[in-house]
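This section describes the prediction task in plain terms. A model, or a person checking by hand, is given the sequence of a single protein chain and must write out its three-dimensional structure as a string of tokens. No templates, partner chains or ligands are provided. The sample shown here is typical of the held-out split.
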Amino acid sequence: MFFTPLVVLLAAVLLSLWKGTAVIAAETAINDWILRHFSPVFAWAGLGFLALLGGIALSPLGGRIIGGPDARPILNRWRWFAVTLCTTIATGILFWGAAEPLFHLNDPPAMLGLTPGSDAAATFAMSTMFLHWTLTPYAIYTVAGLAFALVYYNRGERFSLSSLFVPLIGQRAHGPVGTGIDIICLYALVAGMAASMGAGILAVAGGVEGIGGFTGGPPLRWAIAVAIVASFLISAATGLQKGIAGLSVVNTWLFFAIILFVLIAGPTAEMIGLSLRGTVDYLTTFVPRNLGLDVDTDWHRQWTIFNWANWFAWAPVTALFLGRLAVGYSVRAFILYNLILPSLFGAVWMTAIAGATIALDQQSGAALYAILTAQGPDPVLFRLFSALGGGPGVAAIVLFAIFLSYVAGADANVSAMSALSTRGISPDAPEAPIAIQAVWGITVGLVALVLVAGGGIDGIRMMSVLGGFPALFIIIGAALSLIAMTLRWDHGNAPPER
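The expected answer:
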């Protein structure tokens, strides 16, 4: 579980450097095939997970304490929320929070018949940001994390993704098939992390170049990648309480400071009005929009399903870390802190960042969209803060938040990846050696740089889908295990707790 995915990933990096054009072409073909044939599975899975979590919250299992009635939490509720938030959003909410709504505002799906740049298109753009960054994607993480927490702490299974399937097929899950699952998910997470890190590198590079007034090119991107990897490895070496939790708390306060600045400096009335209209549209179109029934098929695949695939790519291994944090809390508390509260944060963030972006773009005659189409998504967030009068000081804070958000997220996930590929991990000895974490961290950085250099943002998007495809079936299996455990607890047939 260490050498096999590592060798495959390094071979992929070398092949990309040697035959970059051919690799991008192959990725494109595979990506198109996945989106063409499996989009309905991604879409229905997201809705099904939400329904499942609602049922669990109302069932007797909802009151069960993760780890048993005598278990004690390892994090207080505030630090638990901060770590969960930063582990799950990484740089995506920053990078796409300003860039994505511009696409939806100025190029809405033809099937809806909206005039680009109109108020109706603005409502659609905000509704779409709520769709892509709140309940449905967080349900993916919550299902996987909750299933692992219960099998790891309550059933005493090993720290392995194969443990997710024990409620379904028993100890056979830990055989060769289980090892294969772990290997596939390690590959999937590296794909997802590399995609997110690639976006982070582009965003930080765009900010540094904007503040400094120069073009750094590949050397700047290499330097940013090295700084990110070094930072999260230093954090990982200090452990959960000092490293990951400390970074996450600082990062969460930075997020709230950014939101407050935008709400004060931006067109507040327009942003709140847009958020209210977007919320109504989000709620009234929730089911058809999730399933792509009222928008163009190509648009649904390239936007909604791409987003789901990206979240799926992270979910299996991230679930190991999220499940580890939950000991001592109830199942309902897990759903609250992993689904409801992060979704509310995502809605508030999009009200501020996406709302300000949409309002300013409408007021300026699509000036931000012109920057997006001419220069790509990298500089959009910083142009937004410049338009709000933030100046270099605010831009530097935003730049630091982008950097720190990836470091905090990567720290948690590299910890989980390393533990997954190390023998002897248990609740009493949860951390892998720092050397293993260093190997995985450097590998993620190399894959991200190859993505940025070879495929740019298109390569990042495709790698997300490729990583999310195998993970889709892992999380569906986790959902089935949750159903099995819920039924057993409902009927008093649960296995003895550890």
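For orientation: The radius of gyration is 21 Å.
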